[in-house]
Amino acid sequence: MVFTAFAAASLLAVFSTQPAGVWAQDAEGWYKSHPGMSRINRVNQDSHQIVDEFGRTRFFHGTNVVMKEPPWHRPLEWVPGVSSFGEEDVQNLHDLGLNVVRLGHSWAGAEPVRGQYNQTFLDIMKQQTKMAEDHGLYVLVDVHQDCLSRHFCGNGAPDWFAQPDWVARGKMYPFPLKTTPFPVDERGFPTPESLCSTVDWALSYTSVALGNAFGRLYNNYDGLGDAFAAYWKKLASGYAETTNVVGYNLLNEPWVGDTWADPTLLVPGVADHKVMEGLWNRASEQIRTVDNDTLIWFEGATLDVLSGFNNVPLGDGSKTVHSFHYYSPPQMGTIANTLDNRSKDNERLRTAGVLTELTFWMGDDKQMQGLADAMVATDAKMFSWIGWAYENLYDGTTGQPHPELAKHYSRAYPAAVAGIPTSFSFSDSSATFKLQFTADPNIDAPTEIILPPSTFPNGYSVEVSPDGSLVQHTVDKRTLALFTSNSLKDATDITVTITRK
Ligand SMILES: *[C@@H]1O[C@H](CO)[C@@H](O)[C@H](O)[C@H]1NC(C)=O
Ligand SMILES: *[C@@H]1O[C@H](CO)[C@@H](O)[C@H](O)[C@H]1NC(C)=O
Ligand SMILES: *[C@@H]1O[C@H](CO)[C@@H](O)[C@H](O)[C@H]1NC(C)=O
After folding, report:
1. What's the CATH number where 467 sits?
2. 341 CB less than 6 Å from ligand 3?
3. Most CB atoms within 10 A, among 54, 99, 117, 243?
4. Beta bridge partners of 143
5. Per-residue model confidence (pLDDT) at position 24
6. What DSSP letter does each residue of 328-378 carry, written as one string?
7. Which pLDDT value is given to residue 68?
């Protein structure tokens, strides 16, 4: 257990001016009596931020781990050049400074035969979630999909989900992207599989067959919406008691539905309330029969600029998170502008929002500048982020990370704030981190700043204003804890500045 291994680290005597009473505060004792990770199951609807069991505001930096083909989970064993998710990986993510993984929990892997769950698969997912917990990482349980199923050169829904006769023969996938549909094998999958690379996957959503299949999911045709909701109940019953599950991400990048039957679904904002809201409620109702606590993360149409939901799933924004992506295209305009729009969504829906995917792979200068801009903007607007994706971190078969990506993953950030944050920032050139927050003296849990050793190889200096308002304690190699001093009686504005030595 990483946390207890470092619990013996001592208080740092940095401030000569610190009043004597402060030293009586028992930081080590707090960690001993609160081993492990904090439960996270509430959103502060005024600050629009996620809070933990102690009332601390929480921020997340992380990466996506999704396996899009059988066996629908990453192997546990670390082999350079092969995308895995095991001990070595969670250690790497911990060392980088990350604290969350959006972990794909494929419906296809979990329910290979309708109504029959594959417990072996579900156990492997739980094992990977537990490994993440042992290294201080939260897990966002993500039911992932792209183009829904193998009938449409996609992934996510089980093979039994879609039927070839749902659309007329001449309109089968990928009509009208191709005038003649692809030949299919006995399972209804395009054959040879190489045909799939001849269509743009994102444009595939505009094909008749794929839109039709999404429409049937939303309409609960043949109980397919119920089957999706039942899968969520199955997942939630397995995870309800799991400390490090930060949420249930209902469905990745849901398409707007059957646009051939209802073209209004293409109007920005319409699909969110017209088709998705019903399915999200259906799944959330099933989740809540077994788990009243875990946050439900919901996505809207990927193309949207502003959310079109009338309300969050089940109507209580303190128990949900709006999960959204930023890619350019399809998003027009800067990430800063997108985050401003998402803040408006948060205010209207009275919930929190998290950027659960953004471009996090090597590219040309413009793309790398975009990533640097995203890092600055997410800090400035105080949004958590999860990059796409873990496997892109590594440089081919060497097993070495790309330094240009590792540097962004290894930023300093406030994982927990014992109060209400007003701003934070990190300059990667000077390795200077600054946090301003209003400390809540009723919270006895510490503010925690992640300071990855690779970014601060010779350590760091900490300045706190007002002097003596925080008590420092090193938790582990990457985490600095700052306990609000017992001498503080009222809400107090505190500034923390940390610089590389
Ligand atoms: C269940 O999952 C395990 C682990 O991925 C796999 O080996 C097995 O083939 C799966 N069973 C079915 C019926 O798909
Ligand atoms: C969730 O809360 C509802 C309403 O308070 C209650 O009826 C239900 O039993 C709870 N479910 C669980 C799993 O705790
Ligand atoms: C933000 O929303 C406005 C509409 O209020 C829209 O015009 C603009 O394009 C949006 N920005 C982005 C980057 O999506």
Report:
1. 2.60.40.1180
2. yes
3. 99
4. none
5. 53
6. TTTS-S-HHHHHHHHHHHHHHHTSEEEEEEEB-S---HHHHHHHHHHHHHH
7. 97
CA of 306 from ligand 3 middle (Å) equals 7
**pLDDT computed for residue 336 by the predictor:** 98
Question: What is the whole-number distance in angstroms between the Cα of residue 289 and the centre of ligand 2?
Answer: 7
Residue type present at position 428: D
In angstroms, the Cα distances linking 249 to 86, 131, 475 are 22, 20, 30
What is the reported pLDDT for 25? 75
Q: Is 277 a catalytic residue?
A: no
For residue 3, the model assigns a pLDDT of: 37
Strand-pairing partners, residue 40, are 52
Residues 397, 387, single domain; the answer is yes
* CA 182 – ligand 1 centroid, Å: 29
The parent domain of residue 417 ranges over 24-58+412-500
* N-terminal to C-terminal alpha carbon distance within the chain: 29
Give the mean pLDDT per block of 10 residues along the chain (501 residues): 35 41 73 96 98 98 98 96 96 98 98 98 98 98 98 98 95 98 96 97 97 98 98 98 98 98 97 98 98 98 94 98 96 95 98 98 98 98 98 94 98 98 97 98 97 97 97 96 95 97 95
- Look at residue 468 in the predicted model and tell me its pLDDT: 94
Please state whether the peptide bond connecting residue 35 to the residue before it is cis, i.e. omega within 30 degrees of 0: no
Any domain includes 303:
yes
Ligand lying closest to the C-alpha of residue 345: 3
Phi, psi (rounded to 5 degrees) for 57:
-75, 135
> Are residues 489 and 447 part of one domain?
yes
Whether residue 191 lies inside any domain: the answer is no
Selection from 457, 499, 465, 458 nearest residue 482 by Cα: 465
- Determine which one of 133, 253, 357, 391 is catalytic: 253
Residue 123 placed within a domain: yes
From the list 207, 250, 241, 4, the residue with the least C-alpha distance to 105 is 250
Between helix 224-239 and helix 208-218 the angle, nearest 10°, is 60
User: Is residue 179 assigned to a domain?
Assistant: no
